[in-house]
Design goal:
The structure holds two protein chains of two kinds. By secondary structure, chain A is of the alpha+beta class. Chain A has seven helices and 18 strands. In chain A, α2 packs across α3. Chain A is elongated and about 80 Å long. Chain B has two domains: about 45 residues, no CATH class; about 200 residues, MetI-like (MetI-like fold, Orthogonal Bundle). Chain B has eleven helices and no strands. In chain B, α2 packs across α11, α3 crosses α8 and α8 packs antiparallel against α11. The chains are: A alpha+beta, B mainly alpha.
Chain lengths: ~325, ~260
């Protein structure tokens, strides 16, 4: 398909604050691309620069290969849907719809015909189209235009996007398909901002081959996939998602590519579709989630105070840098109760 | 629960305090008696006499010219000032905001005196032009504050939406910004108009000989008591006009 919109080393500062910091990003033709991040991460500034409401201090913005960095908004084939809808309060519904077409110089008859058609459409399946997002998705499927969507809601971003760029402090931390972002986070910010995760501080004991061995106080040594180069002695931040951990009463048989650690259940929270366990392992309190197969029949779920084994595959752990202290408040860790 | 009587009582008190003197004036403007307050029958003759007096009509014309020009000028300048105050925040703008508010409480006599000194120093001949300039200086603050209040809840997204839909800078201003702000600007303009048309103190300082406005002429007429009923009639007319303008301004501020 090829690139439609390209941000090339784009930087935008507001006084001392760098809203967008040397961002390079490609949006493919026809895809729904989401910019996801906490407020103030620069996602809206990027969108505003794509629309032409704001200009970068340095860098270029290309649309279909053409430099549009300094083109005013009215001359860009880019349209923005405003969160506040930005309806014209002094105009009727009809005139709101006709505003764009009239400016484009359509004949009165054309404007009237198209306005009528849009009004009919709106009335047809009002119930189905109440949500703007559903509406946008429908437009996307019908027309095949490219969408650049800005949100701080990870669930929204995951469900509608072809690809997502996770932003924090003016930079893109990771770009990829929703599953890539969730399953293989490249930074501890991404791991914690998208979904829930456990973070453990550890030190690399040995690195080589497919796995690294990592010492974590209270857990002993664990094996973790080498998806990034680490050296022995390096301090790392291990990310482990709750649903990747299996909670068992008996010690499981694990091979060289999996882990089993001992712990004691401190809290059990039943959610219906799954149960969340808080398990004490030395100084760590790990969150694990288990689904049920035969909960009322022969399945005997671990209860409060039970000694259990936690097991997970080496591929499910990630060796990341520690997140910044300033970001701690932005990260959604699982609820404690 | 029984409806409270408080609103009724306060409304009556407002009527008594503010409008009783005015009522006396209005009644006397229809009284056939020239010198005494006792009722000697209803008459239109004082009103008819206004039409015969060229100096009154001339002063009325002057007042209208000055008020219209001052209102128009302060609408343009005030809107620009309000935009500057709303769109750009800085220490300089805080100071600007203060400068805009001070004339609201500045004594008229001080303002009139200083304007006169300025015009004389600048060698500007005193005329309707100097009166208009003087009126703009105090009307401006009112228009700025009224438009500024409107801008506080103005959603600037709609301007961007207009640009996004293909409107240039000028088209977006003319088709979106101005129509939405128009009631506020107009309300400010009407306020300026009423302030200008009844100003006496500032006008007294900066008017040239023979360039009377209605208030300054009325004041000089008061010295001759046989003219009093005519002044009453004239005042009643001005009162009616002010009422209409203020009501219009109030309606415009309330809408949207």
């Amino acid at each position: 398909m090829g690139t439609l919109l390209r941000f090339e080393n784009v930087t935008r500062r507001f006084g001392d604050f760098t809203a967008v910091d040397d961002v390079t990003l490609d949006v493919e033709k026809g895809e729904t691309f989401s910019l996801l991040g906490p407020s103030g991460c620069g996602k809206t500034t990027l969108l505003r620069m794509a629309a032409g409401f704001d200009r970068p201090d340095s860098g270029r913005i290309l649309l279909d290969g053409r430099d549009i960095t300094h083109l005013p908004p009215d001359q860009r084939p880019v349209n923005t849907v405003f969160q506040s809808y930005a309806l014209f309060p002094h105009l009727s519904v009809r005139d709101n719809i006709a505003f764009g077409p009239k400016l484009k110089g359509w004949s009165a008859a054309e404007v009237k015909r198209e306005t009528e058609r849009m009004l009919e459409l709106a009335a047809l399946d009002l119930k189905l189209r109440q949500r703007l997002l559903v509406e946008l998705d429908a437009i996307h499927d019908e027309v095949g235009i490219t969408f650049l969507y800005v949100t701080h809601d990870q669930g929204e971003a995951m469900s509608i996007s072809d690809r997502i760029a996770v932003m924090n402090r003016g930079v893109i931390e990771q770009t990829g398909k929703p599953a890539e972002i969730y399953e293989t986070p490249r930074s501890s910010f991404v791991a914690a901002f998208i979904g829930d995760t456990n973070f453990l501080d550890g030190r690399v004991v040995e690195s080589g081959g497919r796995f690294s061995r990592c010492a974590i106080d209270g857990l002993g040594e664990v094996v973790i996939d080498n998806d990034r180069a680490v050296a022995a002695g390096e301090v790392v931040h291990v990310s482990l998602r709750p649903e990747k951990i299996v909670v068992m009463r008996e010690k499981p048989e694990v091979g060289a590519d999996a882990n089993a650690v001992r712990g004691k259940v401190e809290d059990v929270i039943y959610f219906g579709s799954h149960t969340r366990y808080w398990v004490r392992c030395g100084e760590w309190r790990l969150c694990a989630e288990m689904q049920h197969r035969r909960f009322q029949l022969d399945e005997k779920a671990p209860a409060w105070g039970d000694e259990v084994w936690l097991s997970w595959h080496a591929n499910d752990g990630f060796l990341l840098d520690r997140y910044r202290v300033e970001d701690e408040a932005l990260l959604t860790l699982p609820d404690e109760d | 629960m029984k409806a409270s009587r408080l609103p009724l009582i306060t409304t009556l008190l407002v009527l008594v305090f503010f409008y009783l003197p005015i009522l006396a004036l209005v009644l006397r403007s229809f009284n056939a008696s020239r010198y005494t307050p006792e009722w000697r029958g209803f008459t239109w003759k004082w009103y008819e006499r206004i039409a015969d007096r060229d100096d009154l009509l001339m002063a009325l014309g002057n007042s209208m010219k000055v008020a219209l020009a001052a209102a128009l000028a302060s609408m343009i300048l005030g809107t620009a000032a309000a935009f500057a105050l709303n769109r750009h925040r800085s220490r300089l703008q805080d100071f600007h905001g203060l400068l805009v508010r001070v004339p609201l409480v500045l004594p008229d006599i001080l303002m009139g005196m200083s304007l006169l000194l300025l015009f004389v120093t600048a060698g500007l001949p005193l005329s309707l032009v100097t009166i208009t300039l003087a009126h703009v200086t105090f009307c401006l603050s009112y228009v700025t504050l009224v438009v500024l209040a409107r801008l506080e809840d103005f959603d600037f997204n709609v301007v961007e939406a207009a640009r996004d839909l293909g409107a240039g800078r000028v088209a977006a201003f003319m088709k979106v910004t101005l129509p939405i702000l128009a009631p506020g600007i107009l309300a400010g303009g009407l306020l300026a108009f009423t302030l200008s048309i009844d100003d006496y103190v500032v006008t007294y300082f900066v008017k040239g000989p023979g360039a009377d406005t209605l208030p300054t002429l009325v004041y000089s007429m008061i010295k001759k008591s046989k003219e009093l009923p005519v002044i009453n009639a004239l005042s009643t007319l001005m009162l009616a006009m002010t009422f209409v303008v203020v009501m219009l301004a109030q309606r415009l501020t309330r809408r949207a």
